[in-house]
Design goal:
Elements lengths: L1 H24 L13 E6 L2 E22 L5 E6 L6 E2 L4 E5 L2 H34 L7 H34 L1 E3 L4 E3 L9 E2 L8 E16 H13 L11 E5 L10 E6 L9 E8 L11 E18 L4 E2 L5 E6 L5 E5 L1 E6 L2 E6 L6 E5 L11 E4 L7 H8 L1
Parallel strand pairs: 1-20
Antiparallel strand pairs: 1-19, 2-9, 2-13, 3-5, 3-8, 4-7, 5-6, 7-9, 9-12, 10-11, 10-13, 11-12, 13-18, 14-15, 15-16, 15-19, 17-18
Helix pairs in contact: 2-3
Length: about 400
């Protein structure tokens, strides 16, 4: 037993001696150097000319609206249009029973003929008296009466003509015509209904939908800001006579026809502090219907020195203040506090906090902190392959 223990100890010592010999023959382990600098993707900031727009909510309204009402009373004889169809200005839409009006017109025509016949006789009599009074064949009083009778006969003819014109107008009013072209809605009456002149309820409503209005509202504060920007030169008007307007529909799609801003209301709504803006759009396919909710993108003007930064590069601190990281010429990271005015697509419009020509960090923001050094690569550049990295290391 003792001999076995001795042999085991000798074997352990031999193994230790062999390991020590191997360690002495191997090369010393090289100590590792400083870690490589983190890579960050950067873009060089620059200004650009930007068409500034604002998006406002609103609703569509017909270009023209006409409510049809009868101007004479009577029994409705016929309706001459299809509800919901297109009508043209001058089309006869309703026919009121015109028998009474034709009779009145004929009576007025006969009264005019009678007055004209009386005028002819009176004119001859007055002419004879005018010659006879010169030779004292009739008295001056008789001549004066004849001349006065002539004037009365002329007045009767004028009154008869006016009465005939009035009856002709009333007869024409038995045909209710379309004053404008457009789409006509539902009829509120059917043949046989008794109509009265200037009744409060319209017979039908015609709406002209091509072109069509879009009325949107903007706060008076925003309107003042826009005017100040234009006055200071920060914004410039485009060469167009009217501002261009684009439209987004209720389903989020973009309306294919651009419009133009026509006017802005001259008063502010006291209850809301909003100003109404009106744009006009072509509507050849009647895709836009009155009352639709839309969002209008209105061109405000052109800005020559606009600075746009990607939203992914802009962060928020604990107070909600927008910040960004830039890489200075010494390749050190700096924190910039920004002032942004609005989002444009996936970018922020920046007013202050960064200058053109600086390197903005857009990739690898989580790898660095302000004051640290980093190595810049162009944002979006492909990462070097493993083979290329190995070759560079050799």
């Amino acid at each position: 037993m003792k001999q076995q223990k001795i042999f085991r100890r000798l074997g352990s010592l031999s193994a230790l001696a062999f390991v020590a010999a191997l360690a002495g023959c191997s090369e010393p382990v090289a100590q590792s150097g400083p870690p490589p600098l983190p890579e960050v993707g950067v873009v060089t900031t620059q200004t650009q000319t930007l068409s500034m727009t604002t998006e406002l909510a609103g609703r569509t309204n017909p270009y023209m609206v006409s409510e049809l009402r009868p101007q004479v009373g009577g029994i409705l004889k016929e309706r001459l249009f299809k509800e919901g169809g297109e009508v043209n200005a001058g089309d006869i839409l309703y026919q009121i029973d015109d028998a009474i009006f034709k009779a009145r017109h004929n009576s007025a025509k006969a009264a005019l003929a009678k007055a004209e016949a009386n005028l002819k006789v009176t004119r001859l009599t007055a002419g004879r008296y005018k010659e006879l009074v010169k030779i004292n064949a009739v008295s001056k009083q008789e001549n004066d009466s004849a001349q006065a009778e002539l004037l009365r006969a002329q007045a009767d003819v004028a009154a008869a003509k006016a009465a005939l014109d009035m009856e002709a107008i009333n007869l024409a009013y038995t045909r209710v015509e379309a004053p404008i072209s457009g789409r006509i809605g539902q009829s509120s009456v059917t043949p046989g209904a008794l109509l009265s002149a200037s009744q409060p309820d319209p017979l039908a409503v015609i709406q002209q939908l091509d072109p069509i209005y879009v009325d949107v509202t903007q706060s008076s504060v925003e309107l003042l800001r826009l005017r100040e920007a234009l006055a200071s030169g920060a914004l410039k008007r485009s060469d167009k006579a009217a501002a261009s307007v684009k439209l987004k529909l209720e389903d989020g799609s973009v309306y294919e026809h651009p419009g133009e801003l026509q006017f802005s209301e001259v008063r502010v709504e006291p209850g809301t502090g909003m100003v109404t803006l009106r744009a006009v759009f072509p509507n050849p396919d009647n895709k836009l219907l009155p009352g639709m909710y839309v969002r209008a993108q209105i061109e405000e003007g052109l800005r020559d020195d606009a600075m746009l930064l990607p939203q992914r590069a802009v962060m928020r601190d604990g107070k909600g203040t927008p910040t960004a990281l830039v890489l200075n010429p010494d390749n050190k990271v700096e924190l910039r506090v920004l002032e942004t005015s609005r989002a444009i697509g996936d970018q922020w419009l920046v007013e202050r906090g960064i200058s053109p020509g600086e390197r903005l960090i857009v990739e690898g923001v989580q790898k660095v902190r302000p004051g640290a050094e980093a190595r810049a690569v162009e944002a979006g550049a492909p990462a070097p392959s493993l083979a290329a990295t190995s070759a560079a290391a050799q």
